[in-house]
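Sequence in, structure out. Go.
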Amino acid sequence: MRAILRTAAAVSAIALLAACGSKTQAPNASSSASGSASGATASKFLGCMVTDTGGIDDRSFNASSWQGMQEAAQADPNIEIKYLQSQSSSDYTPNINAFIAKKCGIIVTVGFLMGDNTQTAAKANPSQKFAIVDYSYSPSISNVDALVFNTVQDGFLGGYLAAGMSKTGVVATFGGQKLPTVTIYMDGFWDGVQYYNSQNHKNVKVLGWNEKTQRGSFTGNFTDQTAGQHLTQTFISSHADVVFPVAGNVGLGAAKAVQNADAQAGSQKVNMLWVDTDGCVSAAQYCKYFISSVTKGIQASVKAAVLAAANGTFKGGNYIGTLENQGAVLSPYHDFASKVPSALQSQLDKIKQDIQSGKIKPATKSPV
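Output:
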């Protein structure tokens, strides 16, 4: 993530449901390598993935990474795919090493927290190809395809959208953990609200994060849905009517709080934005509350990395997803297509163009 944050700073002065139809999915997908990863069938290319602790069905970056693996296997019948699930950070290195022992054609690691483990393994095994989601290296590593996303850009659009849709003049965001890959979203969201205020002479407030001070609200992990529900209820009690959780599976707790608020007679109407994936696909049961989703192109970039390794065109380095290359975008409005005013939609289209041209430079104070 360091490289993308450098890029964001320079430019600015700056998922899916668990995939159960895999090709030879690892049985039980436990954090232990025992029995979970067998060698590839003769002549088959083996693509392997190590999840972060959110798990394969986090409706966020792990699930969308696995979907990218599946799409690669669907595109090339010679590709066989497997994953190992990390229950804690202590599983990262053992899971990576288990796949090195199985001679995987590429090992995809998922999440910022696996950056150091992946780097150590890559340098110790220079002939082994790796890809990592949400982390990059400076200088780049020749056998690691680092996939990062400038989500300060679409986070900015999400913040502007949230402010434009708020009826109470209060919106909120929170993170799972205070990591650069999380706070870059929150920076963009906060900045988008401020830009809305300046352009429309409004004073929409943001709860849960301040881009200037880099202080805000976090649940401490990406798995505790109850914590996400309680924190969101606190925001709703403070009149927030649009909430943006940047917390993987914890966001389902936020969605539950929004649903509960909707069921209470006389309560304010509350909606939200999803993160990483299109929430109307990955958490469809809550689609009616998702104005949009602030997404990153994880599926496409993982698919491309696996296919490149399989067909012999793999190149290490840092890929950066942006608005321009569709690597960081807002999802469709779905149920809100007729509810988001046409004027607001037009403003968002213009802002997107201005960010791409450099006329608008979202700022981020995340570490570089």
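Check: DSSP finds eleven helices and 14 strands in the chain. Residues 46 and 80 are 5 Å apart (CA to CA).
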